[in-house]
Amino acid sequence: MFVDFREYVIDDKSNARQALQKLDALSSKDSRTLFIINEEGKLLGTVTDGDIRRGLLSGREISENVNLYMNRKFKFLREDQINAEEVKLYKGLKIHLLPVLDSKERIVKLIDLKQVQAIVPISALIMAGGRGERLRPLTDATPKPMLKVGDKPIIEHNIDRLIKYGVEDFYISIKYLGKNIQDYFGDGKSKGVNIKYIEEDEPLGTIGAFRLAPQIRHEHILVMNSDILTTLDFEDFYKHFLAINADMCVASVPYSVNIPYGVLELSDDLHVTSLKEKPTYVYYSNAGIYLLRSKLRDLIPAEGMYNATDLMDDLIRSKRKVVNFPILNYWLDIGNQQDFLKAQMDIKHLEL
Asked: PROSITE patterns of this UniProt entry (predicted)?
C-alpha cells in the first residue's frame, strides 16, 4: 500500500531527457509518474511520459528543464488531515499514486491507491497472547495466531486486511511463544507498516494490554482478537463509529434463534397480551472487534486482568456511549479444531 517514494522523485534541476530516463526505469511499475522536488524536498509538481511528449510536440527541447513540462495541479493529502471521502474521490478519478505531504510540502509517503480499499486513520491493537488450549496439539509448538489458514498465518490475514484500509500503526500483544510472532513480522517494514510489541508478563485479559500501548498516534484505535477471520468493512465500521459519536463501538455477529412453538406474550400480572406463532429472535454476540477513543486507555487499571467486557460495563455505568455494529459479512472465530478446519475450506472462497 505504501510505496518507497525515492524511486519516483526527481529534483527540479533535472532536464526532460533525465526525466525520461528515470521514467523508463519505471517501465515495470504500474505507475510511470515522477514527483518533482526542490532542494528542500518541497513537492513542486508531477511529470509523466505524456507530459514530456506534449511539451516536445509544442516545440520544447528535450534538454530543457523538467519544470517546463510538469503538472502543477496535482492531487495530494495532508499528513494530519487524511480524509476517507477524499481518498475515495481520488480512487474514482483513477489516480494511482497519491503523495502525502507534511506541513512543509515535503513527501512523507506515497499511497498506492490500487492496493487500498480505503484510508481509515486509526491505529490497531491485535491481541495475540493466548495459549490456544482448545487447538492443542496444534498450538504446542506454534502460537495460535501463527497457525496457517490457507497459505499464511491467521494473524497475517488480519494485518494484511487492515493494511488495505490504510492502517499503518500496529501494536501486537504477545505472551505464549510470542517470539515466534516477533521473528515473523519484525518491525513491520517488510509490509510498509510500523509494528510494536506489548509483552504480557502475566495474562492481562482481552484489552488489558491497551494500557501498555505507547505513543498512540491516532485519536481512535481498533482492538481485535488475532484468531478471527472476517471480511468486515473497516471503513463502514469507522464511519458508523464517527457518525454516532461513540466512545466505544462493538462489532457483533447476529445470531437467530427460531422457536418452533407459539410464544405467549405476558403482562406483569400474567395476562396474555398476544401470541406469536413460531417467532424468530435475533441476538447480537460479541465479535471480538472494537473501535474506541484512544484516551480511554486511562480508564484501564494499572494491574491485573481486564477484559473488553469490563470496559464496556464501566463505560455504560458512567453513562458513556457504547454502540453496536452488526457484521453482515463473513466472520469466524477460530477457537477450536472444528472451526479451524472450516476456516481451511472457507479461505478458498474469501477475498480478504
From this structure: CBS (PS51371)
- Which residues are bridge partners to 32 per DSSP? none
- Determine the Cα angle at 153 with ends 151 and 155, to 5°: 140
> According to DSSP H, which parts of 127-212 are helical?
154-164, 178-185
What's the CA gap between 305 and 208, in Å, rounded?
6
Q: Any idea which residue has 534538454 for its cell?
A: 63
Give CA–CA dist 118/140, Å, rounded: 38
Instruction: Give the three cell numbers for residue 252.
Output: 457483533
Domain definitions of the chain by residue range: 2-112, 123-251+284-349
Which DSSP string do the residues of 256-315 spell out, in sequence order? Answer: EEE-SSEEEEE-TT--EEEEEES-EEEEEEEEEEEEEEGGGGGGS-SSS---HHHHHHHH
**CATH fold group of domain 2-112:** CBS-domain (3.10.580)
Q: How far is CA 317 from the centre of its chain?
A: 30
What are the pLDDT digits (tens) for 45-64?
999 888 888 989 988 888 98
Beta strands 33-37 and 43-48 are antiparallel
CA neighbor of 327 nearest in space, from 248, 194, 228, 246: 228
Per residue in 291-307, pLDDT tens? Answer: 999 999 989 888 888 99
Q: Taken in order 45, 46, 52, 53, is the CA torsion positive or negative?
A: negative
Give, in order, the Cα–Cα distances in Å from 328 to each of 159, 222, 254. 20, 18, 8
Other CB atoms within 10 A of residue 129 CB: 25
* Residue 248 to residue 162: CA distance in whole angstroms: 19
In this structure, CATH architecture of domain 123-251+284-349:
Alpha-Beta Complex (3.90)
